[in-house]
Amino acid sequence: MKPSHIEHIGIAVSSLDEVIPYYEKLLGQKCYSIEEVADQKVKTAFFKVGQTKIELLEATSPDSPIAKWLEKNPRGGVHHIAFNVDNVQVALDECADAGIQLIDTKPRKGAEGLNIAFLHPKSTHGVLTELCEQPK
Ligand code: CMX
């Protein structure tokens, strides 16, 4: 697996409305998209810095991964890092062969129509890692 670039950095927040103005000021741009991803139980807000996006994540349900993470990290912060790969299924198979624990054994649909899959932080040295493939 050889990712082309960091697709996005996922940042967990308690409230998009509270945090979006900070990033708009910091990055000198308007948030270009807000999208709910029902499958992941999140609402996302996106910014772009070069090829890499900043993805703010708000929970849409108490059992969302973001709600659970915020219980332990109430101030919010970096939740995951996402790498862009050509083919998520091929990359997942390579990770499994290398003994990395997968959260998803098959790609799912994420925000912006990307194919996505997660690797478990217990086998990635504590960093929740996402693999992303652009829609064809
Ligand atoms: N980064 C690093 N470690 C994390 C973590 C994160 N984001 N989230 C949880 N963990 C750690 C916990 O600290 C805990 O470690 P310890 O056992 O040492 O205490 C361990 O993982 C288990 O955590 P948990 O609170 O019991 O949470 P769960 O097992 O229920 O779930 C995880 C953890 C990573 C499997 C789950 O959050 C998951 O499936 N994540 C992938 C999907 C996701 O995060 N979706 C939201 C983003 C969607 C998007 O980008 O569109």
Write the layout of secondary structure elements.
Blueprint: E1 5-12, H1 16-27, E2 33-37, E3 42-49, E4 52-59, H2 65-72, E5 77-84, H3 88-97, E6 108-109, E7 115-119, E8 129-133
Parallel strand pairs: 1-4, 5-8
Antiparallel strand pairs: 1-5, 2-3, 3-4, 6-7, 7-8
Give an overview in words.
- The chain has 136 residues and is an alpha+beta fold.
- It has a single domain, classed as 2,3-Dihydroxybiphenyl 1,2-Dioxygenase, domain 1.
- The protein is 22% helix and 36% strand.
- The chain has an eight-stranded mixed beta sheet with strand order 2-3-4-1-5-8-7-6.
- A hairpin with a 4-residue loop joins strand 2 and strand 3 (42-49).
- The protein is globular, with a radius of gyration of 15 Å.
- The protein starts with a strand and ends with a strand.
- The relative contact order is 0.20.
- It binds carboxymethyldethia coenzyme *A.
- Carboxymethyldethia coenzyme *A binds at residues 10, 37, 40, 42, 44, 55, 57, 65-66, 68-69, 79-80, 103, 110-111, 118, 120-121, 126, 128.
- Carboxymethyldethia coenzyme *A (CMX) binds next to strand 3, strand 4, helix 2 and strand 5.
